[in-house]
């Protein structure tokens, strides 16, 4: 009987799956709601159709949205679909992650590969819940308040229910999964890297403290570092995903915009058309996606006319340089680090409270 895993972590009884799922749902939802306003700023930066871009630095963009549009419909636009997708999504994620991780560790698979694979699997299971909510959330974040006089996004929904009805009526139920492939390209690597970094950080912290109780400071630090590093690495995939889910064209005779479906290419991603409201024809305008600290793309610069993630990344790099890949990396890094730190800190604390108030038999690791 072994008392230690291959990476030196002391093993002890595993919490029940129900505890993991409840703690994950509470921690994940709390973290998402706390950081929703920064996610809104990131979405505005990446989906800004204005040339030159209206939203540049994190601080000025945050203040501008708050001053012009307020909190509920400005900084917290799209919070309701985010809430409805976050809790069930994180419940499914943590249940799937813990199950697959334990199965692989018990089978003797190398721990780092186990954490990566379990992160991929957990996020894939959760994606069937959170991707439709992500589409609604992203559009409402980009739109801001109804009849927004401060920012023209191409969307003008009265609220979450109206957005859902309008999308299903005008674009069909499949529109709720626009960008599904792009979202998986972003979120699966993010979750895999996040939990590999987190598990390794926890192992180092326990070794340094010579025990499992590492204190709240290191609990926050390991979670925040894991999320921030994973979020920075996957920022180019987030740029591609946001562009796909916020592309708009205007159809003559319709009062609401319709998402332009990207060309169906075998290896998956997108173009960025935006409506020219004054034109009776379908026209396209480039969405500015350069880094605000590098250069502003000239009107007429190359448009992403593809449905391929890899092709989209290549086009962005060739036309806008490395800055185009990391548009919005500042708020994304801040958002992922704080959200991850809060989520995983709450996850561990809620697990301890559940063990105290809802004791269940814990399976011992052998």
Automatic annotation (TrEMBL):
Transmembrane segments annotated in the record for this chain: 74-93, 113-131
Pfam families: Mito_carr (PF00153)
Family to which this protein belongs: Belongs to the mitochondrial carrier (TC 2.A.29) family.
The Solcar repeat ranges on this chain: 15-103, 110-204, 214-353
The entry's keywords: Membrane, Mitochondrion, Mitochondrion inner membrane, Repeat, Transmembrane, Transmembrane helix, Transport
Subcellular location: Membrane
Domain of life: Eukaryota
UniProt protein name: Mitochondrial carrier protein
InterPro entries in alphabetical order: MCP_dom_sf (IPR023395), MCP_transmembrane (IPR018108)
Topology in the lipid bilayer: Multi-pass membrane protein
């Amino acid at each position: 009987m072994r008392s230690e895993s291959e990476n030196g972590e002391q093993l002890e009884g595993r919490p029940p799956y129900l505890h993991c799922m409840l703690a994950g749902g509470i921690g994940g939802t709390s973290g998402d709601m706390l950081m929703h306003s920064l996610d809104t700023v990131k979405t505005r930066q990446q989906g800004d159709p204005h040339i030159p871009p209206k939203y540049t630095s994190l601080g000025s963009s945050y203040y501008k949205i708050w001053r012009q549009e307020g909190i509920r419909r400005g900084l917290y636009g799209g919070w309701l679909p985010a809430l409805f997708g976050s809790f069930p999504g994180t419940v499914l994620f943590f249940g799937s992650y813990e199950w697959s991780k334990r199965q692989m560790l018990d089978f003797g698979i190398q721990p780092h590969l186990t954490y990566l694979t379990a992160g991929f699997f957990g996020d894939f299971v959760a994606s069937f819940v959170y991707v439709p909510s992500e589409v609604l959330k992203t559009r409402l974040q980009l739109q801001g308040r109804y009849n927004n006089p401060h920012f023209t996004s191409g969307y003008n929904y009265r609220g979450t229910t109206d957005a859902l009805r309008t999308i299903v009526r005008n674009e069909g139920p499949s529109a709720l999964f626009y960008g599904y492939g792009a979202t998986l390209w972003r979120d699966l690597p993010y979750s895999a890297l996040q939990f590999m970094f987190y598990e390794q950080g926890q192992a180092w912290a326990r070794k340094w403290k010579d025990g499992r109780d590492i204190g709240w400071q290191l609990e926050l630090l390991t979670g925040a570092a894991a999320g921030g590093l994973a979020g920075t690495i996957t920022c180019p995939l987030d740029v591609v995903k946001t562009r796909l889910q916020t592309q708009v064209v205007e159809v003559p005779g319709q009062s609401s915009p319709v998402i332009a479906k990207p060309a169906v290419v075998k290896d998956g991603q997108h173009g960025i058309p935006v409506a020219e409201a004054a034109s009776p024809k379908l026209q396209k305008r480039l969405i500015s996606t350069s880094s605000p600290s590098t250069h502003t793309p000239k009107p007429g610069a190359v448009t992403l006319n593809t449905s391929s993630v890899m092709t989209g990344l290549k086009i962005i790099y060739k036309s806008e340089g490395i800055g185009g890949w990391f548009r919005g990396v500042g708020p994304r890094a801040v958002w992922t680090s704080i959200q991850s730190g809060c989520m995983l800190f709450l996850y561990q604390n809620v697990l301890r409270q559940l063990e105290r108030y809802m004791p269940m038999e814990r399976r011992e690791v052998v």
